[in-house]
Each structure stands twice: as C-alpha cells, then as structure tokens.
Amino acid sequence: MVDVLSQNEIDALLAALSSGEMDAEELKKEETQKKVRSYDFKRAVRFSKDHIRSLTRIHENFARFLTTYFSAQLRTFVQINVVQVEQLPYDEFIRSIPKMTILNIFEAEPLEGRMVLEVHPNVAYAMLDRLLGGTGTSPSKITNLTEIETIVMERIFSKAFDSLQEAWKTVIEINPRLEALETNPQFMQIVSPNETIALISLSTKIGDTTGMINLCIPHVVLEPIMPRLSVNNLFFSPKKTRAPEEMEVLQERLHRASLPIIAELGSSTITIREFLSLTTGDVIALSKSVDEPLDIKIGDRSKYTGTPGTVKGKLAVQITDYVTEGVEEHDE
Q1: Which of 21, 64, 213, 266 is deepest in the core (most CB within 10 A)?
Q2: Mean pLDDT value across residues 114-134
Q3: Which residues form the Flagellar motor switch protein FliN-like C-terminal domain (predicted)?
C-alpha cells in the first residue's frame, strides 16, 4: 500500500529541498540502491509456504487417524495433534532429538528414499507398558530395548503406517513399509547432513504421559511430487473409472442380493388389556376388507399392490399394480 503525504508534509519536504537540508540526488540513490538479504546456504529454503500449508493439512489427518489407531490398540486415552511443520537441515534434526530414542526408518513406495518416524522414549515406553499389561507409565530410567520389546514396538508401528497411507491418499497412493527400528540417532544416516527436510512435530499424550512424535521427510523424497502439494491440486481427486470386469462382478453380486418381500394383509390397533385377554378362537378385525388389494413391501417400503391366492397348494400373492411414489411439495 502506497503512503499518501499530507499537504503539511509536502510543504516541509519542498522547504527542506530548497534550503539544501536534503539532496534530491541522494534520495534517488537510496531508492535505486539494491537491498541485500543474507542467505544461509546451510538452511536452504526448499519448501514454499504453500507446501508447508499442504503438509500441515495432510498430517492433521494423519494425527487424527493415529489417535484412533493408538486408542484402539492401547485401550486408553490418546491425544495427538500437529504442533509445527518446518523445514531445517537433517543434521539439525539429529542434534535436536534425544541420544536414546525410538527411530522407525521406513520407505513409502512409489516415493524413493527413506523417512523417519521418531518417537520420544516417554511416549514409546508408555505404549510398551500399556501393551504388556501395565497402566501406561514411562520408567524413570530409559534403557535399551530387549529383543521382545523391539518386536512389540515393530508390530505396533508397522500398523501405524496405515494411518500415514490413508492421510496421503488425497495426494498420492503410497505403501509405507517399516525397514528398521533404531535407538541411536548416530547410527541413522538417511540423507546428507545439509539436506533439507520437512519436520512434522506431533504432540502426544497417552494417559498422563506426554511427549513428541516427529516425522522427518527429506526434500529429495518429496521432490517428484512437489507440484501436487499446491493448494489447487491438494483437494482435486480425479474421477475413478471402474474396469468392465469389475462392473460385471458388481452386477452379478447385485443380482444375487436377497430382499425381503412382505404382503401385508392389514393392520389393527388394540389395547394392552385386550391383548392380554386374547385366547384361541378370538378374531381381530383388520383395517382392510377382503376386496381391497394388499400392500406388498420390499424391505420397509411399499412398492406394489396385489391379491392373495394359492399356487400348487401354497399361499401366494399376485402383483396387480405399482405404487407410484409422490413428490414432496415444499412451501415456498
């Protein structure tokens, strides 16, 4: 927005120029002088604000799916929310996490490269304690995982990647697969130290235990699908077409589906006292006479009318007409 000078400001500026207090040439130089902005090559900006917003939306869905999954598995209160989505060098991410933590290294075909789901020890051990029959508390001292604990961890987090697959469906169909589980960040080198990553931080609460879950996605992994992360493409889903063979299978299954058909003779209303006093031989008068057509229902909806009879010694009903469904009229 351009600032508009008042008349007093214009008069003061002209007076300063005429008196020599300000130099017009110097003003021109200041306007044409290039503004220099420092750039840190170690923190290269690879993700635009548009990309960050898209990643935030995707992983907000991931957090909801993950909350549902862990709540069902642990059978306790679980709350997971996206706290921050940022970009930073991979080396800075490694230095920011604990020396002893849970690192789920995974791949997600067709994307090329490895990603990391880092789970804070407080959260991981609370899950482990809950799965092994405890109350879901985290130990005061963090130790290395035993062989049994490692297997339990791998099983629960392997299934957790189904939530990631579901969250990314609006962008690309991925197939996440756990490759390895590490506890020491120094042994994990998925990209070069200066490579830019997208870090999605999820605040996690399991019962009374709180901690963070961090999802590290290198830029080189997302680079082939970066155009799809724009807001215009994020919510665009192409219309799916079914193969002819699939349509034939659906039609065959539809033709084999069974529906209940009910021929309603009529209805009646009696009191509770009359109902309790019913005995063998009593007659209940129905709302219809024997000359009126019967209502034939498919499920709970009237579709036809018919007349009763017998066929080969069995009770039957013959369809005589269709029931035309009326159009509801709405008051304007």
Answers
A1: 213
A2: 88
A3: 252-323
